[in-house]
Amino acid sequence: MGKVYPCLEADLSKLIHNVKEIVSICNKNNIKVTAVTKVFCAYRPIVESILQGGVSELADSRILNLKKMEDLNCKKTLLRIPMVSECYEVVRYSDMSLNSEIDTIKKLSMAAVELNKVHDILLMVDIGDLREGVLVEDAIDTVRQIITLDNINLVGLGTNVTCYGGLIPDTENLGKLIRLKHDIKNIFNLDLSIISGGNSSSLYMVINDTIPKEVNNLRIGESIVLGVETAYGELIPNCYKDAFILKSEIIELKYKPSVPNGNIGLNSFGEKPQFEDKGIRKRAIVALGKQDVRMEGLKPLDENISIFGASSDHLILDVTDSKEDLKIGDIVEFKLSYGTLLSAMTSPYIEKSYKNEEVYNYI
């Protein structure tokens, strides 16, 4: 049996390379990298390749993915603030969790006592992005309650930026974490060991050496898989942007007008499409649609191919200017944005495959 399409191919050697480069950049600033596995659903070959790249801590937002990594000998963190209903599993499958609600932390304490484990807590602080986190002015009172709980170990402060509000991390907003750390030391004589200064959007500060010196952890996902920092979308030096490639097969190839003939109504998604009249064009349809993957963020590797549009099952391409002699059954390759990669990885209709599997050993 031949290869199944559409197919998402992960180049493991490029992923290992990206991890090594990012770990090296961060190590120069005494920053430890926690590798985020959620975008690739903790698929084992990718997880093991990332560990081979030099990280020793993994993080995911879903218990299901943490379960897949239960046997791995490394620290594991739950990224998404826990649901009360999953506190027992949080303690069982993760060593640390990110938290902002004292009622949830109390439930984690009860679960930790029952499981006879000590569970680490990273208190998330909202420094302006308005996603998860206690407000800076409420943090001291929250800490006062956390440190009274059994089997709960408050190890540090964390924050999240850019994911919701698009807030760019800088010395001023990250400085709020640093000042809060010192306040906690002065009030409670508690020296927090971790200051987690965000995600891939904070890497630009590491690269240009402006990140506050007391930030000693970053939770990195997108930069590993796509080779870019996410504050400005710039390529990280010496990293690959094409570690993941989506491939799909041509199922129709015909010359057709670029504008439908007749009155235009709503398409199958309730939208009224707009068309640019480019005359007769060579159009290829590949077996890939909106039910398979998020279309926004797909970009053909062949720069002479452009996307006309898509339905639930078909992606329509303009291949008129391609230098390739394309035929039925040929494969078209695409680069992906983070959101598109996420949808491709979670899609049951996209086959997953791995290139350079010989570069890692199963743990």
The CATH topology label of the largest domain is: TIM Barrel
Low-confidence stretches: none
Shape, please?
elongated
Tally of structural domains: 2
Pfam family, one: Ala_racemase_N
Domain Alanine racemase N-terminal: 11-224
Protein name: Alanine racemase, N-terminal domain-containing protein
Keywords: Isomerase, Pyridoxal phosphate
Describe what this molecule looks like in 3D:
This is Alanine racemase, N-terminal domain-containing protein. Residues 11-224 form the Alanine racemase N-terminal domain. GO terms for molecular function: alanine racemase activity; pyridoxal phosphate binding. By secondary structure, the protein is α/β, with parallel strands linked by helices. It has 2 domains: 12-226, Alanine racemase (TIM Barrel, Alpha-Beta Barrel); 244-355, Elongation Factor Tu (Ef-tu), domain 3 (Beta Barrel). 27% of the residues lie in helices and 25% in strands. It is built from 10 helices and 17 strands. It has helices at 12-27, 44-52, 63-68, 87-93, 102-115, 139-146, 171-188, 203-207, 222-226, 338-346, and strands spanning 7-11, 32-36, 57-60, 75-78, 96-99, 119-126, 134-135, 152-158, 194-196, 217-220, 244-257, 280-286, 298-300, 306-310, 315-318, 331-336, 351-355. Helix 1 (12-27) crosses helix 2. The model has no long low-confidence stretch (mean pLDDT 94).
